[in-house]
Amino acid sequence: MVFLTRNLFVRRHWHTSQFFGHETPSYDRVWEKRRIYQQAAHYFGRFRNTKLARRYFTRSLTYQTEGRSIRKRVRKELWDTRIEGSCQELDYNAWYMRDALTRAGVYLDRKVLANIALTEPRTFRAVTEIAATKSMDAPEDGGMGMKKCGPGIDVYSKL
Amino acid sequence: MTSMGLLLKRTFINQNAPLNNGAGRFVPQLARLTIKFCKSHGSSQGVRRFIEEDIVQFAKNNPGTVIYLKPRRHRSPVLVAEYLNGEKHHQSLSNYGVNEVSSYVDFYRNQSGVEYSDQQKNTYSDHPSIQGYWNPHTHQEPGVNFLKYPVNKPAILHQPSATEIVRNAFISQQEGNEFSPGEEEKLEARKQTSSS
Predict the structure, then answer these.
(1) Do A125 and B1 touch (CB under 8 A)?
(2) Preceding amide of B150 cis, omega within 30
(3) What average pLDDT values come out for chain A (159 residues) when binned by 10 residues?
(4) Of A114, A131, A143, B5, which one has the greatest count of Cβ atoms within 10 A?
(5) Handedness of CA B131, B134, B137, B139 (dihedral sign)
(6) Residues 6 or more apart from A115 whose CB is under 8 A from it?
(7) In whole angstroms, what is the distance from residue B33 CA to residue B80 CA?
(8) What is the number of alpha carbons within 13 Å of residue A151 lying toward its C-beta?
């Protein structure tokens, strides 16, 4: 949908008024109402037919505005949960994952990690092993000095 | 984002390039343009001016489109655009100026005949998963199939269970209190103050 504000639904033509002698607006009320009823077509009962449609459609626009920041937050929480679940299966604590991956130079974001945990599980396992190896490294080598964790893949190169 | 409730279709716009590699010529989708207008009525004035001025150039620029002009008495002007996929779109040109008429003709020239629809995602893939979707057996070792239970193997997660925590605490209590150095000092300090 392109129109984000109710004001933009107004269809206004300017015509020269014979009475006033200057340009006056003419409102296309049928069209304006029709646009609102189109947006409210999936509402229940009276809320899609009467003037209530206008009221509740305005509310839906406010929900859309508020929802823009809420969607980002909810998406992030969902990705976090999924990454945590996938890491737990591989015996790694996802709390340290971001830090470990950054230290190893793997700059993958939450969205990509959550998606590859579903569609590319073997790649995710390898990424978790990178994070686990980095976490188990001693602090002098740039690691976090954690106990044994992660999927048991042998890493032969220095991360 | 309201997508007009139930009225707006949701699609992936991926039918334009079947090979997805840019090969092949662009085929203009507008097949036929029919303009019906009146020779005398005022509502066709913009259309008549468009026909006098711009339509020949438009026809030369679009050799793939056939243009029909239908002068009909006492009829309001209408534009009917027919596309290669068989769709027909009509547009009233009543009381439109020449600029509006030419804008609408250009608009229908640039359309494919496909119904206006909403694409909410930027990405599309025929094969979303290459390695295969995760299932509960993806990360399990095949040897799990041949185990005979009960098994004295340690659990995959190294964290002790609640039972094991309580049992370990009881055992350490039975063996005798083993304090760390800090705790022992605190206990000594407390003992001195209580005695004095």
Answers:
(1) no
(2) yes
(3) 62 75 81 85 88 91 94 97 95 93 95 96 96 91 87 88
(4) A131
(5) positive
(6) none
(7) 6
(8) 20
Residue that the structure tokens 């995959």 belong to:
B156
Q: Residue A135's closest CA among A108, A106, A112?
A: A106
The reply to whether ipTM tops 0.90 is no
C-alpha distance from A99 to closest chain B C-alpha (Å): 22
Instruction: List the strands of the sheet with B30-37, edge to edge.
Output: B66-71, B30-37, B78-83, B88-92
Distance from CA of A142 to the nearest CA of B (A): 24
**SS3 of A113, please?**
helix
**What's the DSSP call for residue B160?**
P
Stretch B151-162: mean pLDDT:
69
Model pLDDT for residues B76-96, shown as the tens digit of each residue:
999 999 999 899 999 999 999
Q: Choosing among A4, A38, A116, which should be mutated to test the B contact, i.e. which has the most B CBs within 10 A?
A: A38
Token pair listed for B58: 């438009």
Q: What is the pLDDT of residues A15-60, one digit of tens each?
A: 777 787 888 887 778 888 888 888 888 899 999 888 899 999 999 9
A68 vs B: CB within 8 A: no
CB contact under 8 A, A1 and B7: no
For B120, nearest residue in chain A (alpha carbons): A1
State the Cα torsion B163-B168-B170-B176 to the nearest 10°.
180
DSSP string over B22-53: --SPPPP-EEEEEEEE-SS-GGGHHHHHHHHH
Contact in structure between A1 and B10 (CB atoms under 8 Å): no
Distance (Å, rounded) from C-alpha A23 to C-alpha A73? Answer: 48
Selected residues 43-72 of chain B with any CB under 8 Å from a CB in chain A: none
Query: How many Cβ atoms are within 10 Å of B107's Cβ, its own excluded?
Result: 13
Whether B81 contacts B88, CB under 8 Å: yes
